[in-house]
Amino acid sequence: MNPISNIWNHPKTSAAGVLIAVATIAGVLSQQGITLGNVGSGTVIALVSGLATALLGLLARDPVTSGVSSGNPTAKLGAWALIALLLQIPFVSGCSGKTVAQDIVNWTPALQSAVATLDSTAALLDPAAAPIFAAATSGFDAASNLLVAQAKAYLANPTAGVLAQLQAAVVAFQQQVNASLLQATRITNQNSQKLILNAINAVGTVVLAILALVQSVSSKIAVARMAAQSTIKLAEVRPYIDEDKAVATVARHYGEPVELARVQVGQAEQNIAQAGF
After folding, report:
1. Domain count, the chain
2. How many whole angstroms separate alpha carbon 274 and alpha carbon 66?
């Protein structure tokens, strides 16, 4: 078919295709750290991506006159609009440093709450499991306090030097979480092991979310350095990560549907693993 006549005969579908391409390309550029400059508190790339997604949403909201079916053009546009929307993942979308810094700080109350809950778990364990649990999580309070302090420092002063300190803090904590997950597998009492894994997963979900945010504003060299410091890789502890718990935590934090949170968690974990963590 002649492409010119095709565009003329199907302007809405053609426009949607262009907008989807723009949103997709902008998302890839953003993940690679390409911003094309700043606009207000964000970047040019983030602005273009957001506008493309919004316009695509307007196209998809046109009235349906022939009923919704798999072959209905408007239904297809709605599906593509959802896909484009899913590309705008809050904690891996390459927003400005200030925006990401605020997002990191917003996660810190959940981190502190998870660590507090973890501390209270010891009283519920069988006598043989308690010492292993105490040894595995002994540094969590200090690591949590340091990460919260560094997050607030970066929000107040988002410079490369402060970011480097935040990078070191989140990687160190992530390694502690990974090590504790592996140590928890030594516990033979199934009830105690379940309690411990649940408590560690609550902390680990927040730490991974913060790591993904930090990764999104870090240079390739910095990410490579962070990954090199990660001796216990995500692949080693993945069997002990509670994905459903992580998804529920992210959905609750951002006030969004579970389906979207599941995409976010999966994308964040994929980016972290691909970076070498």
Report:
1. 2
2. 44
